[in-house]
Amino acid sequence: MAPKRKPDDDDDVGESTDEFANPFDDTMQFTKPVYLVAVRDDDQAAAYSVLKIDAAAVAGNDEPRRVRAVAVLTTGTEPGMSFVTARSRHGSWIVGVGGGLRAGTIIFDPGTIITRLGYPKHKPVLISHGSEVYAISGTPRVKPSMDCEPWFESLSFKDGVPSKECGRWVSWHHLPPPPFFPCFLNPYEFRNPPEIFQSHPMLSLAHTF
């Protein structure tokens, strides 16, 4: 017998216990919703809508998919942010990183916790692997502030939301930069650091290259 659908009557933005209780539970695959993050085309400088698509409970069900906005992300957002998903036995999250001069980090569960990167990354390359989220600078620089070291960091959700100080800060783990980053370049290359175009970062579970 196919699993029953979760009723939508009490489906709230802040209620994610049932939907995210155990992301590895195969019995809930048909009832899990799909979330999309879309840029809002309105007067707000930087805003994103979180859209929820209700999945069909039974294979071959003719019931149309229902799409609705469950949240609008405005506080702490910047134009050009990148979003990935992260999950562990504690739940699932949408993680947004990057943007402009105030480039930060958003963790959405779907209740939002606003945090900040140790150093802003303008347009980072994000990789989600299991309970880890990796952020690597897309335009590594040698000058302070934007896209300066650390160029490569990871965020672990192994023990839940990786926040401290009542959710006001997140502890990113610094990783060794790839060999083509500024600290390994000659003086000419150091003054003209390369940008990453159509790259394919390869990571190992031991954080080695």
Automatic annotation (TrEMBL):
<feature type="region of interest" description="Disordered">
    <location>
        <begin position="1"/>
        <end position="25"/>
    </location>
</feature>
<dbReference type="Pfam" id="PF07893">
    <property type="entry name" value="DUF1668"/>
</dbReference>
<dbReference type="InterPro" id="IPR012871">
    <property type="entry name" value="DUF1668_ORYSA"/>
</dbReference>
<protein>
    <submittedName>
        <fullName>Os11g0143600 protein</fullName>
    </submittedName>
</protein>
<feature type="compositionally biased region" description="Acidic residues">
    <location>
        <begin position="9"/>
        <end position="18"/>
    </location>
</feature>
